[in-house]
Amino acid sequence: MERSQQQEIGALETSLINLVQDHQQATVRLQEQTEKAKKDAIRKAVRVSNLLVDAVNGGVEESFVIEKRIESEIRVLAATITRFMKQSDQWLSATHAMNTAIKEIGDFENWMKVMEFDCKSIGAAIQNIHKE
């Protein structure tokens, strides 16, 4: 019996060793799968973050281009406004000069009427003096 017990113990020991080896192999395979999944997840996360950065940078770049275009248009509009202001000032000056000239013509016309009246008065006075 002792021999059969030793054989049983040997068989149990062999089974236990086989179980430990199977467990170690399963653990190694699981670690390899976990490491592979981890690397794959990291690679995909890097790809997603790169895509997000590209999307954000694309929007920022487009905003920057639009901002530069708007600034350029602002400069053009400011120059146009300045030109229109100068033109308006010239028109205002010309209108003022015309107004002044019209007033002077009116003043001259009025002076002429006064002079005509004075001349007629003087002429009438001279005729009255002459008649007497």
UniProtKB/TrEMBL annotation:
Database matches in Pfam families? GCN5L1 (PF06320)
List, alphabetically, the InterPro entries matched. BLOC1S1
Coiled-coil intervals = none
Q: What is one term from the GO cellular component aspect held by the record?
A: BLOC-1 complex
* Any single GO BP term: endosomal transport
What's this protein's family per the entry?
Belongs to the BLOC1S1 family.
Q: What is this protein called?
A: Biogenesis of lysosome-related organelles complex 1 subunit 1
What species is this protein from?
Linum trigynum
